[in-house]
Specification:
- The chain has 66 residues and is mainly beta.
- The chain has one domain: Roll (Ubiquitin-like (UB roll)), CATH 3.10.20.
- Helix content is 11%, strand content 33%.
- It is built from one helix and five strands; from the N terminus they run E-E-H-E-E-E.
- A five-stranded mixed β-sheet has the order 2-1-5-3-4, with no helix packed on it.
- The chain is globular, with a radius of gyration of 12 Å.
Length: 66
């Protein structure tokens, strides 16, 4: 098990890829933007990024409106 910070909240999960974690948390790949430890990650790389203990994730979903 690893511990990561997701949008400021500490979460414990099994070690996994960013893609798997996002799906588990209910995010749709390609509709959110992710920064891992302060660096933007392209959605094409989500499946290649292995989360590790202590990682910090910021996830945002663009919204339209006026």
């Amino acid at each position: 098990m690893i511990e990561v910070t997701l949008n400021g909240e500490c979460i414990t999960l099994a070690s996994q890829t960013l893609s798997t974690a996002l799906t588990h948390w209910g995010y749709t790949i390609g509709t959110c933007a992710v920064a891992l430890n302060g660096d933007f990650i392209s959605h094409t790389q989500y499946a290649n990024v292995q989360l590790t203990d202590g990682d910090s994730l910021q996830i945002v979903i663009p919204m339209q409106g006026g």
